[in-house]
Automatic annotation (TrEMBL):
Protein name per the record: Vacuolar protein sorting-associated protein 52
Molecular function terms, GO-annotated: syntaxin binding
Species for this entry: Chloropicon primus
Source lineage: Eukaryota, Viridiplantae, Chlorophyta, Chloropicophyceae, Chloropicales
Protein transport found in the keyword field: yes
Main location: Golgi
Length: 763
C-alpha cells in the first residue's frame, strides 16, 4: 500500500505447472542469448543451474544435445524462480513487519517535520524580537548617554554655580596657614575659572547672583594670601637665617598660594615677586660683600708685577701699593685705609726665586668641587691663600647660591626671570670686583689656574643642567685670558730688556791665572736666576696645560722659549767676543760652558718632572711638553759636545788633529805609502800622551767642576763623563790608526783598560 496505508495479512500456496510453455516457439537469437548469459552468468543461481545441467547431461555433443541443454536450463531456471517465489512467500511475515515499521517511522518523521516547522516559525519570531530589542537597546543607550552628559554638565554647573558655606567660612575666617585653606583656594579657583570660561554659566540667571560673591571671595583670598606670603618673606631678614633651609623647608610648601595669586591678581603677584627679589637679593648681596671682605684679607701674593723672569735681582713681591690696588679692585665699596694693615700682614715672604714654581698649587684643580673657604676658620688657623684659592672660593659660593636660588625660584614662581631679578646685583658685584682685582694680578700661574677653575665651574653647571650662570662664566673667561696674555707678554718683555743689559755685562771679563777667560760671576748669577725662573714658569704652565690643551697658551710659551734662546745666544756671543778681544783661550769653550750651564739647568729641572710632562700623551693631551723637553735636551747635548771638543783640543789637540787627518788618509790611500814622518809624529804624540794623560784628566776634572759646580754637581759630573768618554773614543781611534800604520808603535802605549780605570775614579 501507499504511505500511511495498512497491508492485510495474506498467505499464498502456489502449485505451478509450466510444462506446456514452449520457450522455443519464437525465433531465437543465439548471439543475443549468449551475450545475456555472459552478463548474468556470474550470478550464483544461474551458475548453479549451469553446473547441474552439466552434471545431468554429461559430455554429450551435437545440435540435439544443445536443445536438450537449453531445455534443461529452462527447467532449472523455472525451478529457481519457483524457489525464489517460495522464499519470498516464506519471508512475507517479516516483510509485513518491516512494512509496518516503515509506516511507523514515516509517521514519526511526519511528526518531526511538523515540530520542526513550528520551531522554525518560532525562531523567526524570536529573531524579529531580538532585532527589535537591539534597536530598543541602542535607543536606550543613546538616551542614557545623553542623560549622563546632561547630568554631568548639570552637576558641574550646579557645583560651580553654588557657593558652599564651608568655603565662605574658610576663606573669610580661617588662617592662611591652616591645612584646609589651600584646598579652599583650589576650589575657589575652580569656580572662578568656570564662571570666566563657560558661556553657559555667563548666560545663566544664576551668574548675576554668584559672580559678585565669588569675586568678593577672590579679593579677600588674594589679600590674605599676599599678607601671609609677605610675612613669610620677612622671616628671611632675621639675622643668622639660612635662606636655603627656609626655602626648602617652609616656602616651597606655599607655592600653591603663589600660583593662586599669579592667576587671579597680577598686581599682587608683582608686589610679592618684587618683595621676594629685593629681600633675598639684598640678603645675598650683603652676605657676599661680607664674604669678599673677609676672604680677601687672607690673600697671599705669590708673584707681583716686579716678579718677572728677566729680573736682574730675582724680582720682589709686590709692596703696599700693589696691595692697595688689589684691594681696591676687590672691594671698591670699602675704605682702603681701614684694611691696609690687614693687607700688609696677608702678604707672604714668598721666596723670589720660587715665585714661578708650581709646587702643590696645581692640587686645587682636583678640589674644585670642595666647599668654599670659611674665612674666620682659615684666619684662626693662620692660613693664607693664593689668588686662585680666593677665586675658587668666591665662585664656588656663587655657583652653589645661584644653583639653589635658580631651582627654588623656578619651582616656586614658575618664572626664570625671578632668578635674574634676585641675583643680578650679586653677579654684577662679583663681576665688577673680579674685573678690578684681576687687573692687578700679575701671577701667570694664578691666572691660568683661575682659567682652569672657571672651566671646571662651567662643567659643573653643565652637569647640573643649569644655564643661569652661563653669561657670567663666559665673561670671566673674557676677563682672564687677556690678562694672562698680558702677564706672559710682561715676562717676554722682561727677557727682551734683560738681553740688552746682559750682553753689555758679557763684554766685561776677568782673567784666570792661566790666562783662561772667566765669566763675570754677577753675570753668571743673574743669568742663572733668569734661567731658573724661565724653567719653572714654562714647566708649571705646561703641567697645568697637559690635559687642557690650550693652543693659545702654547703660542705664548713658544714666544717665551724663542726669546729665552735669543737671550742666551746673544750673551754667549758677547762672552765669545770678550774672550777673543782679551786674547784669552779658549773663548769657544767659555761661551759653550755658559750655554751648557743654562740649558742644563732647564733640562735638569724638567727631567725631574718628566713624568708629568709625558703624561700629556697618556692622558689624551698633546705632545707639546715632551717636544719642548726634547728641544732643550738637544740644545744641551750639542753644546756639551762643543764644550767637550774645545776642552779636549786644549789638552790633546795634536792627537785629535792627527787622528782625524790619518783616518782620512788611510781611508783613501791605505798604509802602503811612505809614512815615515807620520810615524815619527805618532811616536811623539804617544810619548807626550803617556806622560801627560793622567795630569790632563785631573786638570779637565778641575776645569769642568769650576765651570759647572756652581750650577749643580750633577751637571758637572755629567759633562765630565761626556768629556772623558769622548777622550777614550779619541784615544781608541788613535790606537786603531797606529795599528794600521805600524803595530810597533803600540809597544809603549797606554792601555785602554788603564785609562778606563783612571776614568772610573772621577765618576
Amino acid at each position: 500500500g501507499g504511505r500511511g496505508g495498512r497491508m492485510e495479512d495474506f498467505s499464498v500456496d502456489l502449485d505451478l505447472d509450466l510444462s506446456d510453455l514452449d520457450i522455443t516457439s519464437g525465433d531465437l537469437n543465439f548471439a543475443e542469448l549468449s551475450e545475456q548469459l555472459a552478463r548474468v552468468g556470474h550470478h550464483k543461481l544461474i551458475a548453479d543451474a549451469f553446473r547441474r545441467a552439466s552434471k545431468g547431461r554429461g559430455d554429450a555433443k551435437g545440435p540435439g544435445n544443445m536443445k536438450e541443454q537449453a531445455k534443461d536450463l529452462e527447467v532449472t531456471l523455472r525451478q529457481v524462480e519457483v524457489e525464489s517465489i517460495e522464499g519470498y512467500v516464506n519471508e512475507s511475515g517479516n516483510l509485513q513487519e518491516l512494512h509496518s515499521q516503515i509506516l511507523e517511522c514515516d509517521g514519526v518523521l511526519d511528526s518531526m517535520e511538523d515540530l520542526l516547522g513550528r520551531f522554525q516559525s518560532d525562531l523567526s519570531e524570536i529573531s524579529s524580537e531580538i532585532k527589535h530589542i537591539q534597536k530598543e537597546s541602542l535607543n536606550l543607550n543613546l538616551k542614557l548617554k545623553n542623560r549622563r552628559a546632561l547630568h554631568e554638565k548639570l552637576s558641574v554647573f550646579a557645583d560651580n554655580m553654588q557657593i558652599p558655606p564651608s568655603l565662605i567660612d574658610v576663606i573669610l575666617d580661617s588662617e592662611v596657614s591652616s591645612a584646609e585653606y589651600l584646598t579652599s583656594l583650589q576650589l575657589l579657583h575652580k569656580k572662578l575659572n568656570f564662571l570666566r570660561t563657560s558661556k553657559e554659566a555667563q548666560s545663566s540667571l544664576a551668574f548675576q547672583d554668584v559672580a559678585p560673591e565669588l569675586s568678593k571671595l577672590e579679593n579677600k583670598a588674594v589679600s590674605k594670601v599676599k599678607t601671609f606670603l609677605l610675612e613669610q618673606f620677612s622671616i628671611l631678614r632675621k639675622p643668622k637665617t639660612n635662606i636655603q633651609i627656609q626655602q626648602q623647608n617652609r616656602l616651597l610648601r606655599l607655592k600653591g598660594f603663589v600660583s593662586f595669586i599669579k592667576q587671579h591678581n597680577q598686581v599682587a603677584y608683582k608686589e610679592i615677586r618684587t618683595n621676594y627679589t629685593e629681600t633675598v637679593g639684598n640678603i645675598l648681596l650683603n652676605h657676599f660683600r661680607v664674604y669678599l671682605s673677609h676672604v680677601s684679607s687672607l690673600e697671599k701674593n705669590m708673584a707681583g708685577k716686579s716678579d718677572v723672569v728677566g729680573s736682574s735681582d730675582g724680582g720682589s713681591a709686590s709692596g703696599t701699593a700693589s696691595a692697595q690696588s688689589t684691594l681696591s679692585g676687590f672691594f671698591n665699596s670699602m675704605k682702603l685705609s681701614a684694611l691696609n694693615q690687614d693687607r700688609k700682614t696677608s702678604r707672604s715672604s714668598q721666596d723670589n726665586g720660587k715665585c714661578f714654581d708650581l709646587g702643590d698649587r696645581g692640587d686645587i684643580l682636583s678640589k674644585v668641587g670642595e666647599s668654599a673657604v670659611v674665612p674666620h676658620v682659615a684666619e684662626s688657623q693662620g692660613v693664607r691663600l693664593p689668588c686662585e684659592q680666593i677665586f675658587r672660593s668666591i665662585n664656588k659660593l656663587l655657583l652653589d647660591s645661584s644653583s639653589s636660588e635658580f631651582i627654588f625660584s623656578t619651582e616656586f614662581f614658575r618664572d626664570q626671570k625671578v632668578f635674574q631679578e634676585t641675583m643680578n646685583e650679586v653677579i654684577a658685584l662679583i663681576s665688577d670686583h673680579l674685573n678690578g682685582w684681576v687687573q692687578d694680578v700679575s701671577d701667570p700661574l694664578g691666572l691660568f689656574l683661575m682659567i682652569r677653575i672657571n672651566y671646571s665651574h662651567q662643567l659643573i653647571m653643565q652637569r647640573r643642567r643649569l644655564p643661569c650662570l652661563d653669561s657670567y662664566l663666559d665673561n670671566v673667561n673674557m676677563i682672564l685670558w687677556p690678562k694672562l696674555k698680558l702677564a706672559l707678554d710682561n715676562q717676554l718683555q722682561s727677557l727682551n730688556n734683560a738681553q740688552v743689559s746682559l750682553v753689555k755685562q758679557a763684554k766685561g771679563r776677568s782673567m784666570g791665572g792661566n790666562g783662561r777667560f772667566v765669566i763675570d760671576s754677577r753675570l753668571a748669577k743673574t743669568v742663572k736666576g733668569i734661567t731658573t725662573r724661565f724653567a719653572d714658569l714654562l714647566l708649571s704652565l705646561m703641567i697645568l696645560n697637559r690635559d687642557f690643551n690650550q693652543g693659545q697658551l702654547e703660542r705664548s710659551l713658544e714666544r717665551l722659549r724663542s726669546t729665552m734662546e735669543d737671550l742666551l745666544l746673544s750673551v754667549a756671543k758677547g762672552i765669545k767676543q770678550a774672550a777673543a778681544q782679551g786674547g784669552s783661550k779658549p773663548g769657544v769653550s767659555s761661551s759653550a760652558s755658559f750655554l751648557v750651564s743654562n740649558y742644563g739647568g732647564v733640562t735638569q729641572t724638567w727631567r725631574e718632572n718628566s713624568d708629568q710632562l709625558s703624561s700629556e700623551v697618556s692622558q689624551g693631551g698633546n705632545q707639546y711638553g715632551e717636544e719642548m723637553l726634547k728641544h732643550f735636551e738637544d740644545l744641551y747635548t750639542s753644546n756639551v759636545s762643543l764644550y767637550v771638543e774645545e776642552e779636549l783640543k786644549g789638552h790633546f789637540g795634536d792627537m785629535i788633529k792627527f787622528v782625524e787627518k790619518l783616518e782620512e788618509t788611510l781611508a783613501l790611500e791605505g798604509s802602503s805609502g811612505d809614512m815615515t814622518s807620520e810615524k815619527a809624529l805618532a811616536k811623539k804624540i804617544m810619548d807626550h800622551f803617556r806622560g801627560a794623560w793622567q795630569d790632563a784628566i785631573q786638570e779637565l776634572n778641575t776645569l769642568v767642576h769650576a765651570d759647572f759646580s756652581g750650577v749643580s754637581e750633577a751637571l758637572a759630573k755629567e759633562v765630565l763623563k761626556a768629556a772623558l768618554t769622548q777622550l777614550l773614543l779619541y784615544y781608541t781611534r788613535f790606537v786603531e790608526v797606529l795599528k794600521q800604520m805600524s803595530p810597533d808603535l803600540l809597544k809603549e802605549s797606554v792601555t785602554i783598560p788603564s785609562i778606563m780605570y783612571e776614568i772610573k775614579k772621577f765618576r
